[in-house]
Amino acid sequence: MRTTWRLMILAGVILMLTGCLPKKYRLSFESPGFRTVKTLYAPGEAVEVSYRIATDTDYWFHIGDVEFEQDYDPRRGVILRFTMPEHDVTIGVDRKNTMTFDPDAHSQPDGISGTGGVPSGNGWICPECGEENSGKFCSECGHARPE
Length: 147
Ligand SMILES: [Zn+2]
Fold this sequence. Notes:
147 residues, alpha+beta, 4-stranded antiparallel β-sheet, 10 strands, elongated, binds zinc ion
């Protein structure tokens, strides 16, 4: 009889313990490049993630609604530290190259293509398609010669 009780209490204790064990939540990443020692964390557990960066690029990290500390280590890259919340967490990063990029560098102003913008003779450049013409209408698209 006493043995049975002990077994029942033991079983109850085990059930309680397993029931109270903190559920673990998954850490996932929107893009490759993040490094972490593991991907399952209990709520309240300290999480540390590193991310290698390039110096000519700006990075903005976001971890859902989780507040995090951002640090930099020259050997490991950016270090993100936060406390695991009671839900799954996804870490993402937005990147922007800081090298100046001029979107107009390779396109020419409208209506001029390859002629340098100076019509030869009494020709004209079609404002619609850029074709050089001499008649009343564009030989390429039919657009009327501008006055
Ligand atoms: Zn035209």
